[in-house]
Amino acid sequence: MTQNDRESMMQAINEAGQKAEAKAASRKEKEIALQAKVAARKAELESSGSFFLVYNLAKINDTFFLDPIIGFFLPGIGDLISAIFAIPFIYLSLFQIRSIPLTLAIIYNFMKDILVGLFPILGDLLDVFIRSYSKNLRLIRGYIDHDEAVIREVNRKAFFTALMIVIVCVLIYFLISYAIAMVKWMWNLIFG
Contact at 8 Å (CB) between 69 and 171? Predict the structure, then answer.
């Protein structure tokens, strides 16, 4: 190998090293820019009125057990109130975070809560342990914090969640239909 060949090879190695350093710096800059974007989005979402409402609903309903208490003292109506309390969670996930899989997961968690709450007394006791508001807040926080594990879990289960929402809706329909039929039967038995 001649001196010129060695110099050419050294120059090529140096150029390759400089390109690799530039690429690494570019990657680092992109990573920093992404982190800044995530932090700005997180600050924007956490300062929104929707997040404030969702955070406080989760705190009141699961920490202070408002959901099971309402369900115990107002059977049936408590489940309707629980469904109304789900609206801010759905709004935040669908219109502010803009994630359909997250919205499906939130709807599914609330549907399970409503299904369990349809069973008098037992459902209210189970409501203490289910804590759908806290689960949904954890999922929302995972998306806001850009937690890859939460996002991956929700995205992976999206189809299953959509299927389960349909099944739970059918179960709720049949339970309500059965309850109405029982009330009619008792009414006819007593007054009929």
Answer: no
Q: What is the mean pLDDT of residues 149-160?
A: 94
Q: Which of 74, 49, 65, 70 is nearest to 133 (CA)?
A: 65
Task: Please state the length of the chain.
Answer: 192
For helices 100-117 and 132-144, what crossing angle results, to 10°? 170
Note the pTM of the prediction, 2 decimals.
Answer: 0.79
d(CA 108, CA 93): 13
The Cβ of residue 30 has, within 10 Å, a number of other Cβ atoms equal to 10
CB 93 within 8 A of CB 106: yes
- CA distance linking residue 125 with residue 137, whole number of Å: 21
